[in-house]
Amino acid sequence: MNTLFEHTSIRKFSSKKIEEPVLENIIEAAARGSNTGNMQIYSIVVTRDQTLKTELCKRGHFGQASIEKAPIVMTFCADLNRFTKWCELRNAEPGYDNFLSFYTATIDTTIAAQNACIAAEAQGLGICYFGTTNYCADEIIDILHLPKHVVPVTTIALGYPDEKSKKTERLPHKAIVHSETYTDFSNEDIENIYAEKEAIPEYQGYIRDNNLENLAQVFTKVRYNTKNNKTFSKKLLETLKKQGFMNND
């Protein structure tokens, strides 16, 4: 429980080597995660090679230095390639080239990734998730030579921490928990839920630095704006089609 409650994202790593037994424990934890039908329709690409990490950094993650400098980069992929080939070898007709199968594989992949992260932190390592995987899936597919029916879902930089990061705030439980059925939020509820977050000095600084009125505008105008959302949505959809996942006939 302490591992879960004390989680922080680590972006600076020491040069200390991650020993194979430690990595094997992390991978075993990922493999033990819940998954659909025990099909394990995911794959983990473990990258140590410096040239590949540099290329992933520059082309796949918008130049974020943690990718290049972490001892290990783990790319978690939705993978129907392996299962489809097994079915074909066994005269069992696969039907996994559709959106539902990709969506299911994405859920299973994410569970595996989170299990791996918890196992890593429990052994004293630091981790950081990279959402840029979704923005640059096509580039990552090229760099890692991912075949048809394999799509990267998330990336984790892994290593021993070389910084002391502080825990980020979370919304109060009343924001995320509903009793029995969903209870929609009144304006007053929203004001109460976000009041503490909006008052944090660091966020107030974001507002001033971007010459905006409030924290919500930091998200809608700067961090996750409509133009980028639409652009990368279109790009990801095209990648899914290219990888053979959108056959819904």
Topology:
Blueprint: H1 2-5, H2 20-31, E1 42-47, H3 50-60, H4 65-69, E2 72-79, H5 81-89, H6 99-122, E3 126-130, H7 132-135, H8 137-144, E4 150-159, H9 187-198, H10 201-209, H11 215-223, H12 226-242
Antiparallel strand pairs: 1-2, 2-4, 3-4
Descriptive overview:
- The protein has 249 residues and is α+β, with helices and mostly antiparallel strands.
- It has 2 domains: 2-165, NADH Oxidase; 173-226, no CATH class.
- It is 50% helix and 12% strand.
- The protein is built from 12 helices and 4 strands, in the order ααβααβααβααβαααα.
- Strands 1-2-4-3 form a 4-stranded antiparallel beta sheet, with helices on both faces.
Please supply descriptive tags for the structure shown above.
single chain, alpha+beta, NADH Oxidase, 2 domains, 12 helices, 4 strands, 50% helix, 12% strand
* CATH level 4 superfamily of the largest domain: NADH Oxidase
Strand order of the largest sheet: 1-2-4-3
Give the CA-CA distance, first to last residue.
46 Å
Average the pLDDT over all residues and give the rounded result. Answer: 96
Radius of gyration: 20 Å
The string of secondary-structure elements, in order, is HHEHHEHHEHHEHHHH
Q: Count of DSSP E strands?
A: 4
Oligomer: single chain
Strand content: 5-15%
The CATH topology annotation of the largest domain reads as: NADH Oxidase
Query: In CATH, what is the class of the largest domain?
Result: Alpha Beta
> What is the second-level CATH architecture of the largest domain?
3-Layer(aba) Sandwich
Secondary structural class:
alpha+beta
Helix fraction by DSSP (H/I, runs of at least 4): 40-55%
Q: What form results from the Cα inertia axes?
A: globular
